Amino acid sequence: MSNEIIPMTIPSQTLLIHGWGANHHIFDPLQAHLPTIGQEHWCIPDLPGHGCAPFDGTFNIDSIADRLATQLSYPTHLLGWSLGGMVALSLAARYPDKVASLCLTASLAKLMASSDYPQGLQRVSLNMMASRFSEDYPKYMQQFLQLQMLYAAPSARACLNSLVPAICQYGPPTALNAALHALEQADLRPLLSSINCPVLLIYGGRDAITPPRMGEYLHQQLPQSEWYLLPQAAHTPFLSHPDEFARVLNQFWERYS
Question: Does the keyword Hydrolase apply (predicted)?
């Protein structure tokens, strides 16, 4: 299978939403593999209390989606990673006229397992990660990213040399605990029936934070969804396998642009 990147123009807006504990710089390496034409229409914000974004003490997924929706003037391609995918889900369900397509990578509708949702996790290790991030953000962010890149090509791992300083320049996110609480409490399953746009689901076979079964659940619930698994990727497939990730994403965008 060829890894050739398909050049294209994106006439509609493109919104990339990062996940918990990171900021917009997490997408820096991916952007080199995506179309440059039309990037003046791109929006890559920081979530509240992450990166340089202010934090008022509350972190509400729907409210964040509401705020982002006001910035979208025409149909938008959404890409949401992890917690950012939950924001993207909320936006797509409640503002369908503003969404051209939705890509969820390593994301979820619900984190914790329940009797009617065995796909969730029985326990969460992110609380320990939040404590470590607060203690020494550069050190533990680097460790986290290195773990995600264990099975990546050397060329992909090399991006960490510039990525970690870029992410860590703002210090630890002030919303770590509030965002983690929102992630643990959120249940977006009732919104899935309202998603009426094309959906691309890209997951990593070695992801222990949002295992593939969470994506498979979304695939079952979203009739217009397409499923793509990167067997050797972990929780950041767009970093560990950027060529393949970008090829699949570009092809998807091309079909719905």
Answer: yes
**3-class DSSP assignment, residue 13:** strand
Asked if residue 89 belongs to a domain, the reply is: yes
Residue 38 pLDDT level (bands cut at 50, 70, 90): low
**Residue 117 domain-assigned?**
yes
- Rounded distance, CA 185 to CA 213, Å? 19
Residue 197 half-sphere exposure, CB side, CA atoms within 13 Å?
Answer: 31
- Tokens found for residue 243: 């060529």
Residue at 5 is within a domain: no
- The pTM of this model reads 0.93
Q: How many CB atoms lie within 10 A of CB 158?
A: 13
Active site residues: 82, 207, 235
Residue 114, Cβ neighbours under 10 Å: how many? 10
Residue 97's domain comprises: 13-255
CA distances for 116 relative to 78, 83, 148, 181, 222, angstroms:
28, 21, 30, 21, 17
Instruction: Express each pLDDT in 191-242 by its tens digit.
Output: 999 999 999 999 999 999 999 999 999 999 999 999 999 999 999 999 999 9
The CATH number assigned to the domain holding 242 equals 3.40.50.1820
Residue 1 lies in a domain: no
Total domains present in the chain? 1
Closest Cα to residue 83, out of 175, 206, 194, 10?
175
Q: How many CA atoms within 13 Å lie on the side-chain side of 153?
A: 7
